[in-house]
Amino acid sequence: ISTAGGVDRYAVTQREASLEILPGVRTPMWTYEGVFPGPTIEARRGRPVTVTHHNELPVPTVVHLHGGHTTAASDGYPTDLVLPEGWHDATHHQHEGHAMGAMHDPRAVVTKLTRDYTFPMIQRPTLLWYHDHRMDFTAPAIWRGLAGLHIIRDDAEEALGLPTGSRELPLVITDRAFDGEGGLSYPSLDPDLRSRPGVREPYLAGVLGDVILVNGAAWPVHEADAARYRLRVLNASNARHYELEAITDDGRRLDLVQIGADQGLLAVPVTHVTLPIAPAERYDLIVDLSGVPVGGRVRLRNRLGSGRTREVMAFHVVRKAPDPSRIPPVLSHDLPTWDRSDAVRVRDFSFRAGRMHGGHGWLIGGLPFDPARTDVTTRLGDVEIWRFIADVHHPVHLHLVGFRVLSRGGEPPGPHDAGLKDTVSLRPGESVEIIIRFDGYRGRFLFHCHNAEHEDMGMMANLEIV
Ligand code: C2O
Ligand code: CU
Ligand code: CU
User: Fold this and answer.
1) Is the torsion defined by CA of 375, 381, 383, 388 positive or negative?
2) Arch. (CATH architecture) of 4-154
3) Where are the domains of the chain?
4) Which atom of ligand 1 lies nearest, measured to the CA of 67?
5) Ligand 3 being an ion, which residues bring their Cβ within 5 A of it?
6) Tens digits of per-residue pLDDT, 8-17?
7) Tell me, what's the ipTM?
8) How many Å apart are CA 68 and CA 46, to the nearest integer?
């Protein structure tokens, strides 16, 4: 990192590395800087960050800052490729007839050998993540390791007295499957890497693993103080949903006090007993371990899992220690207040399975993703209501902007829908309304399902802000 000229500069090399994910075994991965998750970028609100990505992987990549309020040029459009050295014919590769290739528009393909991504960081402090976003290949690239955290902080949040330092823990939760040699098992869809033809159908629902990783370690145990912890949870899994609970040795559930959502602090804390978290969602939680005796454990479990996918991680309380932290009754005052009367239009989108290119795919409004088609055009500054309806579970994500959930299943939003979000979990058969203001930048952005396999299989659309 360098901080010259008021810009924080990072350089990230994307490269292959063999990492010890399971004890005593080496797992070949695709990484940012040789680590998984990638290096955490620490940003200050209002201070731009430039990240120079250099691609030493064998395939083109794209970097997207999820939740970033970012110009279109740095948003990681799926055809804005960072080519590896010696990769001469990107458009040829783009047109290669892999099973689910959407119609590519060669004019949309922008290629570079290295790329500077610039993030203005004019947005509420929160936990963002960066990940690969290459057209049709996002899911296998994330699975292989291309994901990392990007945290935005500011003075106001730091003045709240929340747990900090070693008591603030980002938790990147993922699931992975391993083969007998320790390699990741994924049916790669990349023509250069695909080992079996016709692998698409079994993965229609999304790829799941049977090993739960937190920050790249399988079922870790964290040595903790008997004190409050701030857990900044990201579900970075391709397709797995979790419902988290924190359970003590004597079977008590600890409160999960939510202080923030995808796009930063809530107005006031919301207490949960269990917490559903869909792919790409983030929850900022306070868990109080002060009542746990030294030597005791608190297990973070997934109520939706079975067998070993029921366990996520554990906290082993090893010492009593003073705790100066607090949870203020009011957390923030700057949440948007747009309401139905501010909306200038209402749009409807269905998220459903369907036929595409002769096979099965996932469609928005009956159509698979096509980079050459503009699906939605809106004006900078407009407030809109978007209504979603889902067939199966679809976590729906909008680039660039945060939104509020207005209703769920025709009822007021649930307790987990509080605050400003960028990803909303649609449950099977459910309708959800959100309200958004298209602030910030003109240009072409995306919205899509964040089940990463659904996204690769067509469930993505273009949003043009004019
Ligand atoms: Cu995290 Cu377009 O995605
Ligand atoms: Cu995003
Ligand atoms: Cu989906």
Assistant:
1) positive
2) Sandwich (2.60)
3) 4-154, 165-320, 340-465
4) 1
5) 394, 449, 451, 454
6) 999 999 999 9
7) 0.99
8) 13
Residue 110's pLDDT is 66
- The number of angstroms, rounded, from the C-alpha of 151 to the middle of its chain's C-alpha atoms is 13
280 lines ligand 1 (CB under 6 A): yes
SS3 state at 266: strand
Q: Give pTM, 2 decimals.
A: 0.93
Domain 340-465 part of CATH 3.40.50.300: no
> Given this chain, do its domains 4-154 and 340-465 carry the same CATH topology?
yes
C-beta of 282 in contact with ligand 1 (< 6 A)? no
Write the DSSP string, 286-306. EEE-TTSPTT-EEEEEETT--
pLDDT tens column, 220-230: 999 999 999 99
Tokens at 269, concatenated:
């804390």
Q: What is the residue with the minimal CA distance to atom 3 of ligand 1?
A: 66
- What's the gap in Å between 318 CA and the centre of ligand 2? 38
Which-ligand-closest: CA of 402?
2
Q: Does domain 165-320 have CATH number 3.50.50.60?
A: no
Ligand 1 atom at minimal distance to the Cα of residue 133: 2
